[in-house]
Amino acid sequence: MSQSIRVMGICGTYDLKSANGRMLELILNECAEQGAEISIWDHGDKPLPLVGAKGSWDDVNVKEFQEMATSADAYILSSPEYHGTMSGVMKNSLDWLYSKHTSGKVFGLVCTLGGQSSNNTLNHMRIAARWIHGWVIPEQVAVPNIKEAFEEDGSLKNAAIRERVSSLATSIVTNTIKLRR
Ligand SMILES: Cc1cc2nc3c(=O)[nH]c(=O)nc-3n(C[C@H](O)[C@H](O)[C@H](O)COP(=O)(O)O)c2cc1C
């Protein structure tokens, strides 16, 4: 790869050991294998206040989160589906990002579900990413029946989902390079 790109993972839970943390790890590792620099925001370690809460506009974690986002060329959003949409943690993370941080950058989307596969959360994140002027790639991953999705070693059981993870990582890297030319 001639150009170095930075891909940032944003998790829709506080715990990077959650299913969504694991999905981010799998995809970011594939991006790294293709030459990308990777980073991940840890909400457990550095929680973001709700937008507008007392003191939130001067919060040090918010500032650091926005700086990490500014330095990234692309993002992977991974959220659990809660009541048919993205988690509050994911929505609040996106609410702290404006087009000055994200405009013209690539977004890849992932969601996990306790039940059957659905595109609701993916579509809702797609809309929010568009509103902060992101380019959302068409490849996306929904992981249904999440409690049964992983082997004990943390790999995905389903080969079709593993393939979608690889396609997503490749598309993130190749489209980020194309957009930066
Ligand atoms: C408040 C809440 C609402 C949920 N709503 C849904 C839902 O609408 N559809 C669904 O399939 N699973 C739903 N679930 C299950 C989560 O999607 C599931 O626990 C999550 O994907 C696991 O990912 P995690 O380990 O990263 O938290 C819900 C869970 C919680 C806690």
Description:
The protein has helices at 19-33, 60-71, 88-95, 99-102, 120-131, 159-180; strands at 6-11, 37-41, 74-82, 85-86, 106-112, 135-143. 40% of the residues lie in helices and 21% in strands. The protein starts with 5 loop residues before the first strand and ends with a helix. The chain is of the alpha/beta class. It is globular. The model has no long low-confidence stretch (mean pLDDT 97). The chain has a single domain (6-180), classed as Flavodoxin domain (Rossmann fold). Helix 1 crosses helix 6. Strands 1, 2, 3, 4, 5 and 6 form a six-stranded mixed sheet that branches. It has six helices and six strands; from the N terminus they run βαβαββααβαβα. Flavin mononucleotide binds next to helix 1 and strand 3.
